[in-house]
Design goal:
about 90 residues, about 80% helix
């Protein structure tokens, strides 16, 4: 996935502008983003401070790593079960 060129503080500022009543088209034009990007950020980050956004991203990364570990362990378990079945 491509890394964002915007920091958490910039994303929070852009979303906050929309909450304050600035037209979305104007915000997107100034920031150089699409309206779809703005609405995705709004859905994900609305009401969060930059520090909370960073914590959210860290938790998502940790969750992704843990899911990968579980998938690897499940494959190992299946391979070991197949070896045991062949020996019997």
């Amino acid at each position: 996935m491509k890394a964002s060129k915007f920091t958490d503080a910039q994303k929070a500022f852009i979303v906050k502008q929309g909450e304050e009543g600035t037209p979305v088209a104007e915000i997107c034009r100034k920031a150089g983003i699409s309206q779809a990007t703005y609405f995705n950020w709004k859905k994900k980050y609305a009401g969060l401070m930059p520090s909370e956004m960073k914590k959210l991203r860290e938790l998502e990364d940790e969750n992704r790593r843990l899911k990968k570990i579980i998938a690897d362990l499940m494959l190992d378990k299946e391979m070991l079960q197949d070896v045991v079945k062949r020996k019997l």
